[in-house]
Amino acid sequence: MLSNFALEQQLHTARQELSHALYQHDAACRVIARLKKERDEARSLLAQAERQAPLPASAATANVSALSNGKRVSEDGDMGPGSKQMRPGVSESIIAELTECNAALSQQRKKHQIPPTLAPVDALERYTQLSSHPLHKTNKPGISSIDINLSKDIVATGGIDSSAVLFDQTSGVILSTLSGHSKKVTSVKFVAPSNVILSGSADKTVRIWQGSEDGNCDCRHILKDHTAEVQAITVHATNNYFVTASLDSTWCFYDLSSGLCLTQVLIILSIPLICKVFSYCEYVNHSL
């Protein structure tokens, strides 16, 4: 009996020591997890600050001179969220320009009224197809994006066949076929009122095309700042800047005239949500 009593006491003591050790281990794991989270947040903030910090004049000049023959030259290849490349950042003059544009559009938005020519629902239900135009290759059929230049009645389509097509809706003829992407074209955008077209692709690149009066288009810049599929492009209301969103969890803010990426921001929101936000902003812009 005394032996059993001693064994029970030893077992009870061992259980207490084990419980205390497990409690200390759990507390240590929680502290380590919290420290890792704070470290990751600090690294993210530091990387974002580095991307948004303005470059010295010499570095900015070197970055601009890297544009050669319509291509962005990079010794390290494609840039992405983990890249250490410095961006010029959004200057005070650009912020003032964007703020002024926002104030002007806000005033118009308050006075905006539904136009009387807006088609009612019952009229839309009576719409019928007038014509069909096979614009892209039949071996890889499908259109993944579309945009319309209302002033010239020209339609731009991006296809799975890795090309974009400019179609004159009035005459019913193809004006130009923009070839150069190696994978499907995910987004096409007109930049009004200039003859500039933007195209984004699953090949991780964005192309800036310059159109001419005869309908031909030349590729002016090839932008390789993303490391994954470019999902969406939207043009700012000033028509001087545009934004791209990619599956690499970043969006880039570009200067349209130079094709220079001013800043690249890592995002936490999902890409589909970002694309919806961009689409809504573009809808508001077109509605005005």
From TrEMBL:
Pathway: Protein modification; protein ubiquitination. SMART domains: WD40. The keyword DNA repair applies. GO terms for molecular function: ubiquitin protein ligase activity. Its EC number is 2.3.2.27. Residues 1-48 form the Prp19 coiled-coil region domain. It catalyses: S-ubiquitinyl-[E2 ubiquitin-conjugating enzyme]-L-cysteine + [acceptor protein]-L-lysine = [E2 ubiquitin-conjugating enzyme]-L-cysteine + N(6)-ubiquitinyl-[acceptor protein]-L-lysine. Homotetramer. This is Pre-mRNA-processing factor 19. It comes from Gossypium harknessii. The lineage of its organism: Eukaryota, Viridiplantae, Streptophyta, Embryophyta, Tracheophyta.
